[in-house]
Amino acid sequence: MVNSIIVYFSYHRGNTSKIAHVIGRELNSDIARVKDATVKNLNRYDLIGLGSGIYKGKPHSSIFEIVDKLDDGFKDKYFFIFCTSRKNQECYLDELEMKLKSKGVKYLGRFQTFGEYDRGIFKFFGGINRGRPDIEDFQNAASFARKLKEIVENEKLENS
């Protein structure tokens, strides 16, 4: 069994929260909003997921603050990242991925999907990506989580 936690920041529409809970159910994870998570508490988990909506082209600053506080005690921990956004651009998670890798953690990958967006000018048109994330997005998130679980379980078996 993989001891895991999902830490996320979700603000406007709850899109990231929905994905966090899908991944969390698949991994049987604890789930925490970033404001309730501390680096000290994260150290007791083997697998840590960090998720956020995208704000001005990147994950919320609170996610970066957690990564900044990671010390050498996290080098044996597995990490993955995920996001929801109005545009599904690969570059949104690049900076966070590089920062995690620079900490020397066992980085497993990323998951991205669309999120409903009705801010700014889009609110006058009923928003974009209505209904997203949807059932297909949830299935893709669950599949991503199963792959993560398999990787961690297989590596734990090899090391035992």
Describe this structure in words.
With 160 residues, the chain is an alpha/beta fold. The protein has one domain (4-159): 3-Layer(aba) Sandwich (Rossmann fold). The chain is 37% helix and 24% strand. The protein has five helices and six strands. The chain has helices at residues 15-27, 39-42, 61-68, 94-102, 135-159, and strands at 4-9, 30-33, 47-55, 58-59, 78-85, 106-114. Strands 1, 2, 3, 4, 5 and 6 form a six-stranded mixed beta sheet that branches. It is globular, with a radius of gyration of 15 Å. It comes from candidate division TA06 bacterium 34_109. GO terms for molecular function: FMN binding; menaquinone-dependent protoporphyrinogen oxidase activity. Residues 5-149 form the Flavodoxin-like domain. This is Flavodoxin. One of its GO terms (biological process) is heme biosynthetic process.
Features:
alpha/beta; 6-stranded mixed sheet; 160 residues; Rossmann fold
Q: Spell the H/E element sequence.
A: EHEHEEHEHEH
- From the spread of the alpha carbons, the general shape counts as globular
Average pLDDT, rounded to a whole number, is: 88
CATH homology-level superfamily: Flavodoxin domain
Stated plainly, the CATH topology is called Rossmann fold
Note the total helix count: 5
β-sheet strand percentage:
15-25%
Number of domains: 1
CATH class: Alpha Beta
Please report the distance between the alpha carbons of the first and last residues: 14 Å
The whole-angstrom Rg is: 15 Å
Q: Give the tally of β-strands.
A: 6
Helix content: 25-40%
Low-confidence stretches: none
Class derived from helix and strand content:
alpha/beta
